[in-house]
Amino acid sequence: MLVLSVDSSYSTATCALIKDDKILAEINLNDKKQHSVILMRLIDSILKEYEIDINDIDAFIISRGPGSFTGLRIGMATLKGLAFASKKPLISVSTLDALAYNSISFQGIICPIMDALRDNIYTCLYKNENNNLTPLIKEQCLNINELITILKEQTLPIIFVGDGVAKHKEFLQENIPNSFFAPNHSNFPKASSVGELGIKKINDGIIENIDSINPIYLRKSQAEREYEKRMEI
């Protein structure tokens, strides 16, 4: 099975080409340019390097969020278009799942934290036993203090991964004594992690309807919040 996977939920654009259990190639580009400018260029580059036509891809795998509203829409629209044109399946993977998968070797609690501004974070909680991730709390947007309250109930060691680490590391260390932090190279969702998780879904017989796959934001956009605030006046 040959799959093309993409994540555009962060400032980092990332795409990977995976054949069966082998990662053939991965490109991670942390650029100030918008995903609309660089994403297709990355995909084209990785396919040309292996002299692969888009119709040779057996499945496309995309991260569905949470994350950047604009980035998610661009990534989703791009892979939906490629999947529809080539008549191949599209599989979606949680961005938080992909972040947690970056730390799959850590035995204990894995807590991805993505910055959602104003001391809010996108997060989820997983228990990792023998490289099997079991969700403990569902994906949600929380204030960092709410997360601390939840984590204080845990007895296992906890590793934090994601772009929220840099912003909240000192606060987390003060409040969660048994805490660990992923290295910088693990703090963004990688297309290879997205791809491997997507392949697992395919192997488990989980095939999604392309029309039902949409980004997951977990909160309203700034424009929606500002509109609602104006309407209250």
In terms of DSSP E residues, the strand content is 25-35%
Provide the gyration radius in Å: 18 Å
The poorly predicted ranges are 222-228
Helix content: 25-40%
Spatial shape: globular
What's the total number of strands? 10
> Largest beta sheet, briefly?
5 strands, mixed
Strand order of the largest sheet: 3-2-1-4-5
**Number of contiguous helices:** 7
Mean pLDDT: 92
What would your notes on this structure say?
The protein is of the alpha/beta class and 233 residues long. The strands form 2 sheets. The protein has a 5-stranded mixed beta sheet with strand order 3-2-1-4-5, with helices on both faces. Strands 8-7-6-9-10 form a 5-stranded mixed beta sheet, with helices on both faces. It is globular, with a radius of gyration of 18 Å. It starts with a strand and ends with a helix. About 3% of the residues have low confidence. This is tRNA (Adenosine(37)-N6)-threonylcarbamoyltransferase complex dimerization subunit type 1 TsaB. It comes from Candidatus Sarcina troglodytae.
Topology:
Blueprint: E1 2-7, E2 12-19, E3 22-30, H1 35-49, E4 59-63, H2 69-86, E5 90-93, H3 95-101, E6 108-115, E7 120-129, E8 132-143, H4 144-151, E9 158-161, H5 164-175, E10 179-181, H6 191-203, H7 222-232
Parallel strand pairs: 1-4, 4-5, 6-9, 9-10
Antiparallel strand pairs: 1-2, 2-3, 6-7, 7-8
Helix pairs in contact: 1-2, 3-6
